[in-house]
Structure formats: C-alpha cells, structure tokens
Structure of NAD-dependent epimerase/dehydratase:
Amino acid sequence: MNKTQQQKVALVAGASGIVGSQLVKTLLQNEWEVIGLSRNALSHPDNIQVVNVDLLDAQNSAQALQPLSRITHIFYSAWVNAANWTEMVEPNVTMLRNLVSNIEKTAPLQIVSLMQGYKVYGAHLGPFKTPARESDPAIPGAEFNAAQLTWLSHFQRGKTWHWNAIRPGVVGSAVPGNAMNLAMSIALYASLCKAQDLPLRFPGSEQTWHSIVDHTDAGLLAEATLWAATSPAAENQAFNVNNGDIWRWSELWPHIARWFELEYAPPVRLSFHQLFKDYRTTWRELAGQRLMETDILQLNDGSFADFVFGWDYDMFGDGSKLRRAGFTRMQATHEMFFSLFTQLRAARIIP
C-alpha cells in the first residue's frame, strides 16, 4: 500500500477541548481512524480509542506511545496552564516534544498539525499590528505557541514528515464545561439578563465596544485543519483561520441581543466571572428541572469572556493566505453565534 492509499490514522492530543472535540467529529465523518490522548480520561463521547499518557513524563510517554505504530497524523491542541507566560513555555514544549519524538520512531508519520493562536503575534501583550499576518516578524519574549513551533520546525528538518501551524481567532463552540467557550458565556449572560428583565448590556469598555475581534467557527476550524493536514500546499506553513468576515462589537452585539429578544445597552465594564457567582442561585432556580445543569459554574466560569471583553484594542488576523492556498469555506459570524445559541437551547443548556 503506497502513501496515498494508506489508511489515515489520527492521534489527537486535546481531543475533549472545544477545538479537539469538533476535530474528532470531522475526522470520523471523513472516515479517519482516530485515537485520543488523555492524562486522565478513560473514554471519549465519540467512543474513539483513548490512550492515557502523561506527556510531561518522558518515561511514561515512551511506554504509552510505543504501541501506536500506525499513526500517520498528529493533531496537537493540548496545553497546560501555569502562573505566567514564562512558566508555560517549558512544560508545553516538553509535552509536544515527548509526543512527536516518540511517535516518529515507530509510526509512518506524515503530518504534525500544531494548534496555535494570535499570541504568536503578541496579542496577549497589548495592542499589536492588525491585521496580523503569518509573515509578521516574531515577537521577543516567552510565549509557548511560538516556542513550540520553533522546536517543531527545527526537529522536522531532514525528516520525511511535515508540520503545519493553525492560528484561529476566538473559537465558537457549543461544548459545555470549557472555560474558553465565549459563546457559552454570552448565552448564559443573556439568559440571566432575560430572567432578570434586564437589557443585554455590553460588558466591556467604550474602546472594546468599537474594537474588532475575529471569530472562528469550530466546524470551519476543523475542516481547515483537515484540509491543511492533507494538502501539499500547507506543508511547513502557518495559517490564520477565521470566519472570513470582520465585525466590531458595536455591530455584532445588537444582533446577539435581538436573537435573545432583548434590548441592548451601552458599555459598562462587567465581570462575567463575578456575575456568574452572584447569580449562581438565580441560575439554579432558572434551571429547575428543565435544564441539564443547575450549577452555572459547571457550564462556564466566565473568566475567558472577561479576558476577551477586556481587550480594548483590535484583535484580528488576515485569513487570506489560507483561502489563496485552497481552503475557501467562510462563515458569517453572526450566523455562527445564532447556530451555537440554537444548539445550546436544543441541548437544554440554556432556556
């Protein structure tokens, strides 16, 4: 069996996250064999094989990964948090290194797909050049996404496999329980506002109200990731992946308010994290027997939303390189949010 005929076997690190969970579904829909990695979980909602491994432990990694001799593609969206950006570099590079260096020893590896973000452009530091482009010069200082790609690109030299790096905007997903799910935070907030007969007040500053943040539908992201993993045009390339449209919050927020049949109100800096704690009892009463989760903090703690609505500067990238290379799907961002809210309502996550 030659390389083009070979069964594609994906190893997904971070298979239960808002990025990885949708990627697993997309891979399965395209008839890939999929294996997930987890430090603790024994099962996955899509019933894929799950391998338990601590990627921070070199010996455990070698033992757990050695039997995976059929892997053709690694999709890496796992990460470990730390107290600050500097302390995040070493463990996150270590995890990637332990995975790739072990798999390539025994498997017919073709592609390593690394999930990144706009932090490689310095987005986490404050105002930065927008639109961010893949050709922008590197930013000095500690940042684990950039450090991972530096290691990966150097390690790949002279090898038969290739890498690609995927850089989404804020990812839109309906997966509950994930701290980085902005759509979930907005949906919970809007549901509370409706229950309290309050308008949907924008929770950021006046500067944030007029800023641009690009969004990336999780389904579109998964399809783009799959395209990059199978296209020669994507070999050893980085791509921004966004929906392809541009909105200011001042334009997008009224659309969101109308979907929930709410009036909207001018900006006031609010903390979703604090609001969700303040309204924990209110949500429990609102949920009653109708909703799947009576503890709002189990659905989302609001901290990532506070981070996003704290950006008082533009946060968007140029997604045209991806389209020029051959992936042409786009997604209207307001329709993405409407679809996610509809899914959350159908799943009885919000009323």
Summary: The mean pLDDT is 95. Residues 9-170+216-241 form a domain with the Rossmann fold fold (CATH 3.40.50.720). The longest helix spans residues 85-106.
